[in-house]
Amino acid sequence: MNLALWLHRAARLHPENPALVSGFETLADYSAFDRAAAGLGAALANEHGIRPGDRVAIFAKNCVQYLVAMYGAWYAGAAIVPVNAKLHPREAAWIVENSGAVCLFYTREPGSGLLKLPEMEAVSAIDLAGEAFGALCDHAPLAEPVEQAAADMCWLFYTSGTTGRPKGVMITHGNIQAMALTYFADVDSVHAGDAALYAAPISHGAGLYNVMHVLKAARHVVPASGGFDPAEIFDHGRRTGSVHLFAAPTMVRRLVDHARASGETGEGIRTIVYGGGPMYLADIVEAVEVLGPRFVQIYGQGESPMCITALSREQVNDRGHPRWRERLASVGVAQSCVELRIGDADGKALPPGASGEILVRGAPVMAGYWNNPEASAQTLRDGWLWTGDLGELDEDGFLTLKDRSKDVIISGGTNIYPREVEEALLTHAKVHEVSVIGRPDAEWGETVFAFVVPAVGVDLDAGELDRHCLDAIARFKRPKDYRFVAELPKNNYGKVLKTELRRMLEDNGVNG
To answer: CA-CA distance, 49 to 121, in Å (whole number)?
Structure first.
């Protein structure tokens, strides 16, 4: 079933519901949203030759037109290729070329640099803010979306490419439908009066979360900044009301810091779904203390979008269970539509408490990697997605992440999980942020190295952190060296770039 049918149905049932909101201005109700997408879908087919299965790229900052372009492409039976807006034009061009996209929607920033490249000459490019885009949306509309099967691709998402060229993850209509329906079962409810606030990039998981809000004919709000600004988000909570947003853990940290400094309470923010990186126990405990019971955690990957485990609002807020701290430090239990296993090197299930690779099977799992059968065969085995993440399950089914398999530090033949060291350091009152990596060492293979962002206005030294670690973790796990920095390098989704931290070590000649 074509996902655009959800928009078509919502428009028939709730035509006057506000749909697309830019800042605080409503630009379209559901009738107008559907009419624009259906018109765009017809224009893509009739004027640009788009056929079912073709790819349409979007290289744009957050804006309400992004959603129109997305549903217009789906109306025509095409798959969208959402390109990270912070990529270099040449990186974006490689994705457009690799995907075989025949059409590109863009905003001038960042798209203008991309259009100057010679490899883009054969691609039809349309400015989302231009008159041409409006004219396409005014085309005589399709009566209904082009028929699509659950197995047809609708979202070709390129991974971050931390170990080489990014891979195109083929996500189908059925994958996203499973994700959306499971959201209602395991994550949160959505009502017509709610507002999805797109403070995180629409090109990533936050954008996928539009579909359950379309299904319920709720509002889609892009803040005036087009991005993440804590003061703006709290303002939307008060003025827009019943706000839902997806936030990476670093965004939650910034919201809490702003709330402490300004006295904000989170009024009008109904739900903050967090994920996309490790949320440390100390941070989520503080977040609930400052902003109250607004948080739900999810764990997923591009290959199983937003849909592996969930830690419900009740579980995040529970302080009565004897193991509430362990549960809050976990990423929750398997979402309803997936099977979850901790596997050994052969994929055999390990018992509770044993660490191994996280394996997932179920309706949200990708169809494979675009034009990359070798990578597909390596990652999808006997129906199971090998996530590359390490973790363990407890007796009750709560999954605790250990680390990415590639980030585990092997020192003297012993595995050290960076997250465990980071958790210990973050309990120090003077530590604001931290990231731990392995540093090559001639004797030990690797040693533990910590990049630390001190809290504002405090003095902090390595000896103080050493003493703190020795009170919390085994001596062999403590960092051998520290570097104090003003900030950690992050991508536009708030994930710390450990590859950049490793480069910083190499550039400064401090490898062992």
So the answer is: 16
The residue among 148, 178, 208 that closes a domain is 178
Kindly state whether residue 200 falls inside one of the protein's structural domains: no
Residue 459's CB: how many other CB atoms inside 10 A?
Answer: 7
Q: How far apart are CA 432 and CA 487, in angstroms?
A: 10
Q: Among 127, 146, 178, where does a domain finish? A: 178
Residue in the block written with tokens 């994958």 = 175
DSSP string, 6-62: HHHHHHHH-TTSEEEEETTEEEEEHHHHHHHHHHHHHHHHHHH---TT-EEEEE--S
pLDDT score for 507: 77
CATH number of the domain to which 70 belongs: 3.40.50.12780
Could you count the other beta carbons within 10 Å of the beta carbon of residue 417? 20
277 near 143, Cβ under 8 Å? no
Q: Which CATH number goes with the domain that contains 502?
A: 3.30.300.30
Order of strands across the sheet that contains 481-484: 431-441, 445-454, 481-484
Residue 61 maps to a domain: yes
pLDDT of residue 405: 67
Cβ neighbourhood burial of 88 (10 Å; 0-12, 13-18, 19+): exposed
Q: pLDDT tens digits, residue range 280-295?
A: 899 999 999 999 999 9
**Radius of gyration of the chain measured on its C-alpha atoms:** 23
Q: What is the mean pLDDT of the chain?
A: 93
The residue ranking higher by pLDDT, 445 or 52, is: 52
Give 31's strand partners: none
Distance CA 41, CA 68 (A): 10
- List, in order, residues 6 or more apart from 382 with CB less than 8 Å away: 347
DSSP class of residue 189 equals -
Instruction: Tell me if 130 is assigned to some domain.
Output: yes
> Considering the entire predicted model, what is its pTM?
0.84
Sign of CA dihedral 488, 258, 247, 357: positive
* C-alpha 175, offset from chain centre: 16
**228-269 pLDDT, tens digit each:** 999 999 999 999 999 999 998 888 999 999 999 999 999 999
What total number of domains does the chain contain?
2
Q: Which of 118, 89, 122 is nearest to 106 (CA)?
A: 89
Cβ 302 vs Cβ 169: under 8 Å: yes
CA angle 78, 199, 230 (to 5 degrees): 175
Q: Residue 512 — very low, low, confident or very high, per pLDDT cuts 50/70/90?
A: very low
> 3-state DSSP: the chain helix, strand, coil percent, rounded to 5?
35, 25, 40
Residue 360 falls inside a structural domain: no
Instruction: Kindly state the helix (H) or strand (E) to which residue 461 belongs, with its residue range.
Output: none
Domain range enclosing 425: 408-507
Structure tokens at 220: 């889609």
- The residue with tokens 């990039």 is 201
